[in-house]
UniProtKB/TrEMBL annotation:
Record organism: Eptatretus burgeri
Alphabetized InterPro entries for the sequence: CD2/SLAM_rcpt, Ig-like_dom, Ig-like_dom_sf, Ig-like_fold, Ig_V-set
Record-level GO cellular component terms: membrane
Domain of life per record: Eukaryota
Keyword annotations from UniProtKB, A to Z: Glycoprotein, Membrane, Signal
Chief location of this protein within or outside the cell: membrane
Name listed for the protein in its UniProt record: Ig-like domain-containing protein
Locations listed in the record: Membrane
Signal peptide span: none
């Protein structure tokens, strides 16, 4: 039987004596399978060498030098090919939680909406967007370098690589809810929450003039 990669995700383990961080691909499924694993960093394939050691479903990261970016694990077997959500790792930094902001936005169904961040991009290094209602990751960006949208939303969402803003195209009623942006610098981490209210379009029916006359008579 082949694994369906239920709840496919990345877990982290720190190994201080060896100056390494181990990222592990995990699945909640108990099915036995032969799985091939590949790793990406900021959308590019990870190659084994001095910085990285690949051991099946694990990636050993050498943290004696600065590593910064979003890792993803790609698992495949003859039946399925899937990727984990992007996992942010930044070595030689201390991420302390800072402020948290909240705001509300209203949009008409079918229109597009753009969520802009309040913090200056000069302080930012990375941003990660989630939809709180479904607990799903939507998009991530290493500011000024690269932006990645989850494959399930590539046709509906865009992320600004320079400013970290998120745009939703053709908003639907199911998009109503809270969107969160986790923003990081080397010393601080903070969060912006945006509650989206989607208004349905009002339907207007036009009756032919003959029908109006017949109704009035």
């Amino acid at each position: 039987m082949y694994d369906t990669f239920t709840d496919f995700f990345i877990d982290e383990k720190v190994d201080p004596p060896q100056d390494t961080v181990i990222l592990m691909c995990k699945s909640a499924s108990s099915l036995e399978s032969k799985v091939t694993y590949n790793w990406t960093l900021n959308g590019k394939s990870v190659q084994a060498g001095l910085r990285f050691k690949i051991n099946d479903s694990s990636l050993v990261v050498n943290v004696t030098e600065t590593i910064r970016g979003f890792f993803s694990c790609v698992g495949s077997n003859p039946l399925i090919h899937t990727s984990s959500e992007y996992y942010f790792l930044e070595t030689n930094c201390t991420n302390l939680w800072g402020n948290e902001t909240k705001e509300a936005v209203e949009v008409l169904q079918g229109n597009s909406v753009k969520f802009s961040l309040k913090e200056s991009t000069e302080k930012m290094r990375a941003v990660e967007w989630h939809f709180k209602n479904s607990q799903k990751q939507l998009a991530v960006a290493m500011l000024g370098t690269s932006g990645l949208v989850n494959s399930a939303y590539t046709n509906r969402m865009e992320i600004d690589v320079n400013k970290g803003s998120l745009t939703i195209l053709g908003v639907q009623m199911r998009d109503a809810g809270t969107f969160t942006a986790s923003i990081r610098s080397c010393k601080k981490r903070w969060q912006e929450n945006i509650k989206l209210d989607v208004k349905g379009k009002k339907l207007i029916f036009w009756l032919p003039s003959k029908s109006i006359n017949s109704l009035s008579s």
